[in-house]
Amino acid sequence: MSESQEMKGDRLLFRFSLYGFLKNLRFFEPFLILFFRDAGLSFFQIGVLYAVRDIATNLLEIPAGVIADAFGRRRSMVLSFSAYIVSFVVFYTWPGFSSYALAMVIFAIGEAFRTGTHKALILEHLRIEGIEHLKVTYYGRTRSMSQLGSALNSLIAAALVFYSGNYRYVFLASIVPYVLDLLNLATYPRELDGELAELEWRAVPAQVRTTTRAFVGIFRSPGAIRAILNSAGFDAFFKATKDYLQPVLKAFALGLPMFIAFESRQRSALVIGLVYFGIYLLSSYASRNASRFGRRFGDVAQAINVTFLIGAGLLLVAGVASWLNLPILSIVVFLGLYLLHNVRKPLNVAFISDQISNDVMASGLSVESQLVTLLMAIIAPVLGVLADVAGIGSALAFLGLAMGGVALVAQVGSREDANAPQNPGA
């Protein structure tokens, strides 16, 4: 029986895919740096805001993962999306660096209670249905829908900016899909909460001790640590640098001889919307075919090692191209980086899940997310300072070299070696 046949009729595949589709309707994302720049912030201040978000997420992520495993993953997701909605209201209503910092902290609450938790919900469903061997394909399918959401997001966001002439409205519009997703998450089956889902206040201390002991056990597994570092290292560099495509696209749009009848912000919106639409459409295809890509290497570990090094090279080339004022090359290389990120993600989730006890999956995946945010909190201000002082191109090139160094340190062993400690929390 083929993988597609095994997944046919899966009652939750659509719900999981809908979650990712709606979650990625973040209409502010294609214009976030431009929104901050329009508000008069320097690249360093933008980096500080990113760091505030990431440090706050980092501080909350481990307890959020423990809460998700001990008290209910669905409750954590509902809390997450409620926090997101509040942050969008703050961004829209109160301009200024301090207000944006507050909004970033509230946004971080949403991130902390979401990252790792929904993946754990999916993996719990696969365990219940006895189809854990499909994890790469299954997660690739759901992530494919997420990227389709991002593609549509780009067009809607561009239309909002084009017709309103104001970046602020993208935050107001983002509330609608997030309310819909909150309702979707709130009606997930209770069985996905896992064995520790029943919440009895008198049992809280024992539940926390049980989950914490298993969580600490993750760090006794060298395979788990290497897998988490490999995934987190790539994601941190990608997420810290990906939004710098926006000023590259803006400069490219303003240099085009077409669309001269429109204002500069409208021209930028058109180009940014179309480019991001293409990027996410191709990213959706890449996610859907992640398992096929992994099989070409014959081993998932080799695939994620090689793609890490390729990603570092692409970031270096993007920086050099921007420095040499070759925007088309820089845009194409960024496209490659996005595709690589979306091919790697399902592979990394599957590889990490082989190293961690199912009972603490949300906590283990939150460790990976926490390391991402910790690294981003360091990278973002450094990148901002370099961009203010030496320009965006030089900053990206420097980060590409640094990413290459991390890629060499974060090499993982073969799947067989990494699987040796099957239950590190036992």
Describe this structure in words.
The protein is mainly alpha-helical and 426 residues long. The protein has a single domain (11-418), classed as MFS general substrate transporter like domains (Growth Hormone, Chain: A, Up-down Bundle), CATH 1.20.1250. 78% of the residues lie in helices and 0% in strands. It is built from 19 helices and no strands. Helix 4 runs parallel beside helix 6 (97-114), helix 12 packs across helix 13 (264-288) and helix 12 packs antiparallel against helix 16. The radius of gyration is 21 Å and the shape is globular. The two termini are 34 Å apart.
Assign the CATH class.
Answer: Mainly Alpha
Structural class: mainly alpha
Which regions are unreliable across 5 or more consecutive residues at pLDDT < 50?
197-201, 415-426
Strand content: under 5%
The SSE order reads HHHHHHHHHHHHHHHHHHH
Give the % helix.
over 70%
CATH architecture: Up-down Bundle
| Number of E strands | 0
- For the report, how would you describe the main beta sheet? none
SS field, number of helical segments:
19
Number of domains: 1
Which of globular, elongated, flat, extended, rod-shaped describes the shape? Answer: globular
> What is the CATH fold-level name?
Growth Hormone, Chain: A
End-to-end distance: 34 Å
Fourth-level CATH superfamily: MFS general substrate transporter like domains
> How large, in whole angstroms, is the Cα Rg?
21 Å
Average of per-residue pLDDT values: 82
